[in-house]
Write a structure and sequence with these properties.
single chain, 6 strands, 7 helices, two-stranded antiparallel ribbon
Length: 162
């Protein structure tokens, strides 16, 4: 159950039905099922084409957005990732091993950590070797969580978003 207090709220049949509908919607929105359709331990299916993962030494993820953590958990359970970099909204709780770096940045407006995150992603990508494979996972909120405005300041970008 995603709704932790489902039983205490479902005090009558109508409330139980409404909560069941909400629960089904929440479960359908989880990334696990869609990711299971395209990612397997040894390959990925992209537009019907199979990409073998077994030929790579390391498998990394770069995940950005409000669902970055849950997407990474799903991919990690499907593949056994080597590590990666996640950019999530501030105050997001994560429990990943030390091979994953987590940056908490600004959402809905970018902050200084949004700049740090953009630079760290660029550094991460530059450090990847040809024998490594990187999966990018992007969900809603990415445009504020990762920001490296070119030609304007962070404050100017934030003023455009308000």
């Amino acid at each position: 159950m995603i709704i932790k207090n489902f039983k205490s709220f479902s005090t009558n049949r109508k409330k139980q039905n409404a909560l069941s509908i909400i629960e089904a919607g929440l479960e359908a929105a989880l990334p696990g099922k869609p990711l299971e359709k395209i990612i397997r331990r040894d390959h990925m299916l992209i537009f019907g084409k199979k990409f073998g993962l077994e030929k790579y030494d390391k498998l990394f993820v770069i995940a950005i957005g409000k669902a970055a953590y849950s997407m990474t958990e799903s991919v990690n359970s499907l593949t056994g990732l080597t590590g990666g970099l996640l950019v999530v909204p501030k105050k997001t709780k994560t429990t990943l091993n030390k091979n994953f770096k987590v940056i908490q940045a600004g959402h809905p407006l970018p902050n200084k950590n949004s700049l740090v995150a953009a630079k760290k992603i660029m550094e991460f990508v530059e450090g990847v070797k040809p024998c490594d494979f990187v999966i990018f996972l992007i969900s809603g909120g990415a445009s504020s969580l990762v920001a490296l405005p070119d030609g304007i300041t962070l404050e100017e970008k934030k003023s455009l978003l308000v």
